[in-house]
Amino acid sequence: MTPELYEYVLAHNPPLLPSQRALVDITRSALPGVAVKQIAREQGPLLAFLVRLTGARHIVEVGTFTGLSALSMAQALPADGKLITLDISEEWTAYARDAWHGAGVADRVELRIGAALDSLKAMPAEAHIDLAFIDADKEGYIDYWEELVPRLRPGGLIVADNVLFSGQVLTPETSRTGAAVDAFNEHVAADKRMDSVMLAVADGLTLSRRAA
After folding, report:
1. What is the H or E stretch that residue 60 is in?
2. Closest by CA position to 61, among listed 71, 52, 53
3. What's the DSSP call for residue 133?
4. Do β-strands 82-87 and 58-62 pair in parallel, antiparallel, or remain unpaired?
């Protein structure tokens, strides 16, 4: 996709809300070396759309960074909705907390600091999650998936980011992380509990629906 065509796509999608735009700018300014970890601009409106489409009220996010994806989803939640987001960094998530408070959605977001896998295992075992977003360390994706799928309600959705990993999935023998993402993609494709589709959105996005 050319830069011109990408700008055309953005121009015909819902724009970022002012609070989201501000968080993008703050992240790029304060954390230029790792700002690439933030979701792409087209993904915020897409995640919000999926929240509204599924009628989600209970969301789990694995990987917070500076909070743009959580902000986008929280702003689409109904007032009684809840988003639990998992991360290990107090530094990066401090920006997230400020953004959520500034946007008036802090009451809808619960940040849990610690190993994401431990946090997932500590959640109720029954199917109660409406939507999950996986965007953390790629080598943990399969483990996160296996904890989330049984906790996902029938018809619930898992969204996994970076499933193309800059094309490294095509040469997994040259990249440990690329190999992990490739293994995850194969794992998802073989999982009969879920209906999945991979999209060429940003760095690759897989949408997976829990079968009834």
Report:
1. strand 58-62
2. 71
3. E
4. parallel
